[in-house]
Amino acid sequence: MQDLSGAVGFAEVALAVLLVGVGAAVSRYRGLGLEGDVAVATVRSFAQLLAVGYVLAFVFDGRGGLTLVVLAVMVGTASFTAGARARAIPAARLVAAAALATASVGTLGVIVGTGIIPLRARAIVPLGSMVIANAMTTTGLVMTRLRDDLAAHRREVEARLSLGQTAHQASLPWHRAALRSGMLPIVDQTKVVGLVSLPGAMTGMILAGAPPLAAIRLQLVVMYMILGGNAFAAVVAGELTRRRLFTGDHQLVRSLRRRPM
Amino acid sequence: MADRFEYRQVWVDGDDAPIIAGFDATIPARGLTAMVGPSGAGKTTLLRLLNRLEDPDRGEVLLDGTDVRDYDVLALRRRVQHVGQVPVTFPGTVADNVRVASGPGVDPEELLQRVGLPVSMQDREADRLSVGEAQRLSLARALAVGPDVLVLDEPTSALDATSKAGIEALVRSLAGDGLTVVMVTHEARQAAELADHVVEVRPCRT
Q1: CB < 8 Å from A in window 146-175 of B
Q2: Helix or strand or coil: residue B168?
Q3: What residue spans define the domains of chain B?
């Protein structure tokens, strides 16, 4: 079996940029106005990945303790991104950070604790990044969906509060819908994996020359980790978002109450 | 006669200007009190302070002489039932709606009769009711909790003339049953015809 892991040099990367040229050309001839973005994306991806490559090489070279720092930077950046989308929620970035930290600690804790994967930077960093990237989408979805639904159904929420229901009870139908919307994409993806797409970890291993059955075993672990990570993130994001949108006295926060209907 | 509620120098801040500025009033324990004033005077906000859907930024609201914030908020809300301007129905049947928060020993059929809905309607999906019927259902659901006070925000504003007269008669009879009823209206006529007491709410000068 031919191993491609060492076959791609910078000259080959430069050749692959030809394909980016196709993207730019389409944009140019069809007047899409995306040439600038394509150029920025190409340069950014190159710079970012090159930097990450050096960082990972540095960490893997006997500096495993830095794994925590790498994961913290990933959680921080993802929290910023997910939180920015849910700006209308007070302390949105902290909510997102708590959700993503729980997702990574929870899943990595289980797979390392049970001995599925060894405690090594080379394993923890890429697996953690996949969990965090997926949980970021879920977190953003759950937070924005819950907030938007409570705002749109303010009258019904307040009617429930008026009957003496707690904030938890009064928001339950929308809380549940938000968790579902956050969880469904990964559940669907897990159902069709292999039939619709060959996911990244498996593709990478096969390209690197691993036997397909070894590749799918790792991929299964990755999928289940992502599913579990999304569940952790959804639960924490939903719970904390709800707490940010009600006062301790079971009132909707002012920003939701005063919104014109 | 004892006062049920008292507003003492109540201020509620808006985004730019105050919504309520130094409001004082009392609401007696017996009968129907109408809070009358033009749109935008802050009547809805004043009602929402009674069951603590909101709190004042300054000043206090007393219930039976005690600041409403000193009661357990969930118990307070069960005691002071608030029905909003636009009727809200919950998913499920009419009977499900009545039972959502009903106290012990509540008979849904009896309550439906009390608010003038036919008992045969109890198995109907609540989202299929007319606006007038839905408003009656909202009242039945509030009564099922077993409140001392009924707080109504423009209960007839979304209704046609016939439904409106029906709800007015119902509200009047509930006040006759010994409940404290507080109703917000922008119609001076409605206040004059229905209410035992009238509290005027003037818009804040901006």
Answers
A1: none
A2: helix
A3: 3-200
